[in-house]
């Protein structure tokens, strides 16, 4: 008895001592030591990253034809800084060298009657000219066609005229020129709110014009002005003057490294896209990601030299690429790198001032079709920075007073709150390409970005403080990922296990919500959906632990070290399922209905007998092409995972439905079956009986 009491006293003293060692709360911890994180925070510079972006894309500009015969400005800026900062193995490689493209050199849009006004010039707003190949001096009357739908053309003579529309420039152009129009003045807006909030903004859009025609995008403000003139009876005449020249359509990327110590063949990556087509230049999308990871490399190299961070065991690959195509070109050409990489952090749109854009800085996790240890490294770093940069009222009487625990702010940056969010997978950036090559990858992105893909995507919208915070997260995550020791592997597995417990709890919350919200007649179905959500998440968490085996110096040893964890996850899932059953029984008793175990319906039995495989006309996984689906589709949030599951093959329709329902929210089996049968008719999938 006395021994037990002494043991408790010792434990209390140990906890007190532990608390005194850490100036911050225990929740303010991550995978690196607090001293290492403090060194990172002190070294990384949001102002330096801002300087990088000002060198990369100080303003949106029309490239000269001669620019296509040498390294692009952005490439030269990255390579010059990389050499200055001490990166290793810096290289520039090109691809698609045989391709050709068009570069406009002159583009002027004039209102000529009732008065002479230059409306747009590509040297003022490069994105205003949509048809990059247009050549000619065209004049004609301007008529308004509203939204520019097919029915809006009925009874209208557009031959030899320009069409003004509130519709999408590209869509209306195709309708107008086939009816003899000279060209279109339209707007490109992802939402009506953009036109209201930013009436002088032009969204990026491109098309190949037919000879003797032209397509322009105008601002909502300019369109409104022209509409107002016509509304009061004015006859308007438009003149379009354009010249373009054929140039090389080649693409190029920059690769640089911080080398590992040679103890392992494993490597890791950090990526951004330096180009998104060479015509469109975006400060935030995504020169910001490149400016930021360049600063991450500089700071990492300096901290290694100073002994504040250990040299990485795994080589770190920095990729500055044309979006998606550049990553694919690099990994295809350097298959040895693709095999060696065990994880990549992708940064796409990092530095918008979040308060001005009503934004969050978001971590997009890997999809459930690709469960990975990597998510928790990224999330841990992001939450650490968020916690220490906010003022917590419970600390107001402590040494911190009314202040953040450890501000992460830049000299010339804002003091905005760090709004963060961890979200489900979304595609459309380079992280997807890495996963198509078998490499786990997450994406960090600022969303919404009110100036994304537009004439307003310029450096004045950016915030050095946001650069600094993103760089701290990136460098911390990269240091953990490249560490290459069994100690770090064990820490990562512990992080996976702990956060996985939380995710299983979230799955239970979701499932019990289905039960609580169900009508008496729908209770059995809701209970089954709760079971699906919990079981799905348990399988994902077991796969996450297995994925972390690559973090150990010997994967086989890692598997042995973590062999006891999967049964524990299964045991936890059983407890959660028992709680779901108790909740189901409670609700059934409340409604005075039976709490029988739900049985498969005839529709479910049929779906469980049909295996989904890729069809004869399906493009290769990760590529585009093939016929466009003509039948029904699923809501957007399901589509990326739906395609991954189709490409994977050998799942029944019911298994696919349960996977998608478990990852997201319940999906109608009838809706999924109709989508698959439509794609079967298009040759994109085949449905085979077991």
UniProtKB/TrEMBL annotation:
Keyword Heme tagged: no
Alphabetic keyword roster: Signal
Domain Peptidase M28: 254-473
Region feature Disordered, mapped onto this chain: 594-635
Signal peptide location: 1-23
Lineage, top ranks: Bacteria, Pseudomonadati, Pseudomonadota, Alphaproteobacteria, Sphingomonadales
The name this protein goes by in its record: M28 family peptidase
Superkingdom field: Bacteria
Pfam families found in the cross-reference section: Peptidase_M28
